[in-house]
Amino acid sequence: MAETQSSKVAPRNNNDNDNDNGEDTGGGRLGPRTESPTRGDYRGTESIGGGGPVSGGGGRIEGHGTTVKDEVEDNNNAALHVQGRGTAISGNAEDNKAALHGILSGRGPLSGGEGQIEGRGTAIKGEVEDNNAALHVQGRGMAMGGNAEDNNASLHGMSLSGDGPVRGGGEQIQERDTGISGNAEDSKAAPQGSDPATKLRDDTQTTGKSTGAKIATKVRSRLAQLRHTLLTPMKQKSPTLAAASSSPGPSAAAPSGQSQLQSKLEGLEAALRYLENALANVPPDHPNVSTWQMNLTALNVSHYEISGNLDNLEAALKFGHQALDSVTALHSEIAQWQSILAKAHSYHYQKLGSLDDLKATILYREQALKNMPSGHPDKAFRQANLATEYSERYKRLGDASDLETALKLQHQALNSTSNATQSDRFNWQNQLGTLYSYRYKRFAKINNLQTAVKYREEVLKNVPPGFSDIFKLQNNLANSYNDRYEALNHLEDLESALSLGKQALSNIPAGHSDLSKVLHNLAESYTYHYKQSNDESDLKAAIMHQEQALKNTAPGHPDISLHLNNLAAQYIIRYERFNSLNDLETALKLRKQVLKHVPAGDSNISQWESNLAATYLYYYERFSNMTDLEDALKLGEQALKHTPSGHSNISTRQANLAILYFHHYERLGNVNDLETALTFQNQALDNTPVKHIDISSRKANLASFYSARYRRLGDLDDLLHALKYREEALKNLSSEHSDVPLRQANLATSYTDRYQRLNNSDDLEAALKLQKQALDNIPLGHYYTSTLQANLSILYHYHYGISDDTSDLNVALMFQKQALENTSLGDPERYKWQTNLAMIYLGHYNIYNDVKYLETALEVQKQALENISAGHPGFLYANRTLAALYIKMYQSSKQESDCAEAISYARIAITAASDSPSAWIVAADTAQLFEDFDLSVSFEAYTAAFKSLSDLIWIGTSLTTRHYNMKKHNIHKILSSATAIAAQLNKTQFAIELLEQGLSITSQQYKMLKARYDDLLSNYPVEAAEFERISYLLLHADDPDQTKKENISYNLLATQRKNLIASLRKKDGLDKFLLPASFAELSEVAVEGPVILLNCASLRSDAFIIIQSSETVTVHVVPLHFTDKEVESNLGFLKSTLQHYRQYIQDDSDRSMVPYHKKSKDICSWMKEKIVDPVFNALQQNGIVSGRIWWCTSGAPIESPYIQSYTSTLQGLIKARTQAIENGPILATAVGVSKASSHSGLPSLPGIKPELEAINSIFGQDKVVQLSGSDATVENVLDYMKKSSWLHLACHGVQDPLDSLKSCLLLDNGKLELKKLMTENLPFAKFVFLSACQTATGDKELVNESMHLTGGFITAGFQGAIGTLWTMKDSDGPAVAKGVYETVCNKGYPDPTLAAEGLHLAVKKLRQSGAPFERWAPFVHFGI
């Protein structure tokens, strides 16, 4: 962002570094920006330096950590989720503080038996991931239902007798009756060894003639035989079964448990077959159909709980909806049926993540609660279960109202007088602790955390002696203590958390299935303790416990991948701390194993792919190996592909992929990658609910990408978007949120950008204020402290440029030293801070002239270069900076060795440059540095720079942005310097080629977009059609209607166009397609007369005269002897003269112009002596004494023996001459607006009426369409332009001094602006006469661009045009027009090639009449 302002080493302005990587460029751009992502969310700070967000800790976005967050969504295995590096300052997970750098979020719920372990912080969903875990695991039956109320083993209390469902002792998971209700007489057990399924099938399918009543009776009887199989008690109570139910499917139970589960599964399958057969053999209107359908629903749900078979779940939903659809709301068992269907939808949601299922779950649970009889003893259970569903939706959508509803329902359950046991109440208090923990993380109000702690402390305090699941309560309270430690930094909380975690570990039974989860959570507490103590033994303990967690997970267990992933995260923590490659290698190995252990079709595959992508990103940050980045990108794309549409983590995957593409962009500079990153990030934001906890970080990331594009392309709209989203991102956080300092720092960066763009010191003051606040607010020792210090250093440097107070420079030095001291030796940011520090030392040298500062700067910059490799994005800038420093040293020492070093580093920088904006910046800056030392090096650098000119003035941006970039990068000055050096080295033809590339750049771009290449591309019709489509869209990029309608990314279109051109150049005969013209091609311009190009530079000034005689083309270089100061002085005189002249015309007072007439004569004399005479003498020496001559862009409007014309470019004149244009439907259109109704304040123009009359007379009234008065509207003029060959416009004209694109002709109902003209395509256009003021004035800052109305009409397609350099007198219009058209039509038809001669004669006549210079000189001719 900032540049140490050294006028000699860094002659460019402060905002000359628009490169995408933000490295140091000229004179020391201080401090690239850093952004840091968590979970794909750009967090972090941009060191306000340089070009795009360049990641701070090695390219991290939003956090400390992996730009792609190690997120594990849970999917019902909520216990141990890892956020990986990225949660350091995560937006939504528990591990929200910098202490852990997002290492482990996984403290998910372990539920089962009488209590729960909710764990702390799943990577994606927060603290309690699985719908089952929080409340529903208290059931003392099979406890396989997880989250549903109806946990009574197989049939959930449904009567299978055909008499309608009957409650079987309570539907909640806390139910006391786990049996299947049925009639007493049907209670006989199935005979040992028999196959009940076979017998049932025989009973229902023997003849097909059984009546419905008989089938109903058999259903009752046979299902009663199955009760023994379905309800055989487990040999031991297993509180882990409920935990296992959070992820339905085969569990790793003991062999005896497996046998019992298998037995129940067989019984369920037999019952399912029997009921399905029965249902198929009764009429649809049988009274028992709905009951059997609901029984089938319950049986299928129970089967799914054991088997995890999705088909059973789909069948449950089908039968459940059929059953409910066939009964009324008054049905006696409607509430229980709704509960069962709610449970099926809940499982379906957990499996597939569809919000529709979650919505249905809540709907049916609410209906079931509403339909319960008043005072029902189980009402509290339903309230608690509904609270869980609202809690889940809160985690999914982030709507705080859902959280509040969950809290309300949970309080109601706890405060009820139901028949809940003490164990139930313990569980509900524990769940309230969880919900208050959520509320704390949402609103950052410490009172919510204190309430969570209170409930959990109370539960643990009142637990009865011998409570078997006390370890779960200890674990949960430990998690809350860890939260409070993070919030208040009270060491006693951390010690308590660690103590409780140890107790939980000592109290958990040996071999308990939750052991691995308790070990994991204890590992996390050790990790916190390590951050506090910096004691390596704590980190060793953390890794040891994590390894034990993995060891205690049975092979093939669903959690094996999760634990492998978590252990990988632990090793990454150690890698971040100690920078040991072994740890990173171990992490990569573990995460590769994760994918090996994932079965085909596993729903977690996208999580593991995303985490592995993050690990590869570490490798890329470490070694800058593109293979690692490509692997990360591939995995990120796969992770998104494997995430179902509508899944809760789809936005996270999109955000992560956006970050990976951004890294790709940073490395290769391909703007297409940046566009893709923006696309994914916009999608991520669109898929993030407005109240979601991640909304701030998503906006912060999007702002960073816009900021990067602004620095790359210079579009002010991108800067404003970045500023807007950063302000919103900060506003979306509470004042206590840990991300606040980083948001403040990034917002300061955008204010700094706007200061550089608009030069408003208020923005700089705002940036300084925010950056100071950020540094004050960030915790001591935070990873990003060094970045914030570097940012402040840069801002004080800017402030020094305003204040000229050396104390600002000293403060900048202090902060930059601190930034470097706080950055470890292996940190990828280190080279940036070293470069910044070197530039500050250079600034001190420039002030104090003490060579020790320069020596220190060289030493530090060499260290910076040692920290990066040849392929690194900062390599160009580091070498260019060393070249600049050695030039400074050479100036001081006069040692040739210093000059040789400067040349060596410069050539390395030049060689490394590619076709990107940053390449232009480095090459052009290097060229300017060497102009006074080695012209050959300067020439090499300029040659490299112009190869990337089209990437700097990018056709995919708006015309306003392209003009801004021309001004910002001083294209005019660089073009002049490069041309002068080429002339000095006798490379005359190359000088002409350079000038052509730099003249009227945007006009040439428009002409290329309009041009047809049908003949050239006739052999490639597909490519030709695509090229035409892209060109049309780009041509109208500034049309807001098209942009809105098509939703087009013009940057992507421009990239496609560039790639298509590269592809076409590989085809036969197209190797030079749209390449800059060679001198051989440009030399054709002189076929009808000499062409003169003027160039003025500090090195030398010349006139290049291209003359063709016979078949020989020569270029005569005529030295022009004047200085820059002379040019500036005379231009100033001319400007003041013309300003007074405008007043003179209005007053019609000649007396006041007397002194200005003298000035005009003096200026004419100077131009004649310094420019015209040398050029005309050279022409005459070559035998050219009369006839046509052309000035390319610039000329001298004085009396001449030659017929003078102008052209904006050489190619433009060549093509205009070769165009074969037929007359349009209308020969000529004459427009006259003497007094525009929309501009009443302007004087009337009485000369317009006789002017139009003269045109009618000369052309013939029948050949001219006249538009005057109210007919002369913008719409009519544009319409008739497209039909006419000749156009005459007589009206007021205005050259806008601030924005040349708004220069316009004032028509009756509005303005015809230059911006609009540029895009018009006029197939019949031959000649236009702009009889209006200032129509050829142009932009003083874009002198080579022909940014005036006359140039606009030429760009639109006219072969020739007449305009005015300044204000014309109204009465001169008719005379000059008459003279021009009489000459043009003297052959009996209008000939546009005679217009220049006609103007020459008309002006001569005006001059001979005694008119002063100010009246006859403004008329100029362009074109053929």
Number of helices: 53
Number of strands: 20
Strand content: 5-15%
Question: Unreliable runs, pLDDT <50, ≥5 residues?
Answer: 1-210, 228-247
Approximate helicity band: 55-70%
Radius of gyration: 40 Å
Task: State the major sheet.
Answer: 6 strands, mixed
Please list the strands of the largest sheet in the order they lie side by side: 13-12-14-18-19-20
Question: What is the distance, rounded to the nearest whole angstrom, between the alpha carbons of the first and last residues?
Answer: 47 Å
Structural class: alpha/beta
| Cα shape | elongated
Describe the protein.
By secondary structure, the chain is of the alpha/beta class. The protein is 56% helix and 7% strand. The protein has 53 helices and 20 strands. It has a 6-stranded mixed sheet, sandwiched between helices. It has a 5-stranded mixed sheet with strand order 9-8-7-10-11, with helices on both faces. Helix 12 packs antiparallel against helix 13 (470-488), helix 13 runs antiparallel to helix 14 (491-507) and helix 13 runs parallel beside helix 15. The longest helix has 28 residues, at 1154-1181. The chain is elongated and about 120 Å long. The two termini are 47 Å apart. Mean pLDDT is 78; it is low at 1-210 and 228-247.
How is this structure best summarized?
With 1424 residues, the chain is α/β, with parallel strands linked by helices. It is built from 53 helices and 20 strands. It has a 6-stranded mixed sheet with strand order 13-12-14-18-19-20, sandwiched between helices.
Brief descriptors of the model:
alpha/beta; 56% helix; six-stranded mixed beta sheet; 1424 residues; five-stranded mixed beta sheet; 53 helices; disordered N terminus; single chain
